[in-house]
5'-AMP-activated protein kinase catalytic subunit alpha-1
Amino acid sequence: MWTGLFSEIMRGLSSSIFQYQVISTPTDIFMVMEYVSGGELFDYICKNGRLDEKESRRLFQQILSGVDYCHRHMVVHRDLKPENVLLDAHMNAKIADFGLSNMMSDGEFLRTSCGSPNYAAPEVISGSTCRLVVPKFVQLL
């Protein structure tokens, strides 16, 4: 049930990679997903150096919009980092790799520490329980 509900929620998110189909065999799982030609945001930054302010704002707004959509539907990515943001042919951000994501209920805490330590929030690193809360600085943007 979780995967069906998750897929249904994610269909409404334009800033996420679209998953067309999942094929399961006794030995393998295959996912047919949208092709995103621009590669990872991480590689783009490494190749081109820092982003200019206008481009940074545009990409940041797209990523925040995607995260906001997920959070409004109680989906937590849990591993958001430049390597998991892909760029399409028009340099639009697409959030990818929801492999560590989880769905939450109101008032529920996440207790499992996962994701990439270099990008994790302090409460995740310290092992504290985490709620689905939008930081104040994000609310101001």
Summary: The longest strand covers residues 19-24. Residues 53-72 form the longest helix (20 residues). Residues 2-139 form a domain with the Transferase(Phosphotransferase); domain 1 fold (CATH 1.10.510.10).
